[in-house]
Amino acid sequence: MPALDAAFRWSRESWGVALRCRPLEGLAQHLFTTRQLALRPFDAQGASWRAALAAVGGTPERFVRIKQVHGNIVHVARRDASDPVGPMTEADAVVSNAPGLVVGVQVADCVPLLLADRQSGAVAAVHAGWRGTVAGIAQAAVRTLVREFGADTADIVAAMGPSIGRCCYEVGPEVMDAFRRAGATKAQIDAWFVAGTAGHSWLDLWSVNQDQLIAAGVPPTQVHLSRLCTKTHLAWFDSYRADGANSGRMAALIRVP
Q1: Is residue 86 part of a domain?
Q2: How much is the pLDDT for 55?
Q3: If the chain, 257 residues long, is cut into consecutive pieces of 10 residues, what is the mean pLDDT of each piece?
Q4: Could you tell me if residue 231 is inside a domain?
Q5: What does the pLDDT look like over 243-257, one tens digit per residue?
């Protein structure tokens, strides 16, 4: 298994291994799955999804789905246990403070973020591809936790799961241009991009999302990066860049205490 930062650990599950963040464990049950659990196509009633949800103490009936659209929309989930599972809302983050509810996102290179607030118990799951990152989806999730549930940014703990690293994420000039149009400074562009060939660059989505969370008020010591590149570690993670349309999907799940 790939070596881990001290803030993370591997856990043994019924299907294989999952990744958990130690500082987040004291706040909410959560995990990042690996390619050892096949989760595509999406079917919350399927055996694989039931196993993933059970690993965080959840069930399909208490799981909120979103249709990820690479934007900055945050869905607020306030569903009672008696409410049926409805159609998927278009969003790239979901937040909730409903006890026992599981929220989650799916990824295969994009950045998965899980957040929990120490005081309110509210949690968030965020899907941050480059477009969502340009749109500030991580900051939008933090703002929603504050606005909807009274969270204090000083009490939010964030964990960034496996995703494509700058080592393997070459992008065209349109991506850098999008960040510039969104207001990124020259210093930020210089920090987030490394020049490649033929006008291309290598993008560090980990650093961008870390910087955005800190700018939103989350203390730097409470933003934890797994620093596991999905394309580098193909034996363990699904990667769209490596496998294309045949790529599987992994999940990042977190349960409201």
Answers
A1: yes
A2: 98
A3: 95 97 97 93 79 96 92 87 62 96 96 97 98 98 97 98 98 98 98 95 98 98 98 97 92 97
A4: yes
A5: 998 899 999 999 999
Interior CA angle at 128 toward 125 and 133, to 5°?
130
Taking the C-alpha atoms of residue 79 and residue 104, their distance in angstroms, rounded to an integer, is 15
Distance CA 213, CA 209 (A): 6
CATH (domain of 129): 3.60.140.10
| DSSP label at residue 197 | S
Using CB atoms within 10 A of its CB, is residue 84 exposed (0-12), middle (13-18) or buried (19+)? exposed
Which residues, other chains included, contact 139 with Cβ-Cβ below 8 Å and sequence gap of 6+?
212, 213, 215, 216
In a domain, 188, yes or no: no
Q: Which helix (H) or strand (E) holds 127?
A: strand 123-128
The span from the CA of 38 to the CA of 214, in Å, is: 33
Separation of alpha carbons 215 and 236, rounded Å: 32
Model pLDDT for residues 41-52, shown as the tens digit of each residue: 666 678 999 999
Domains: count for the chain: 1
Domain residues for 37? Answer: 8-163+223-255
Asked if residue 39 lies in contact with residue 247, where contact means CB atoms within 8 angstroms, the answer is: no
In a domain, 198, yes or no: no
Q: Are 44 and 239 in contact (CB under 8 A)?
A: no
What does the alpha-carbon distance between residue 168 and residue 59 come to, in Å, rounded to a whole number? 35
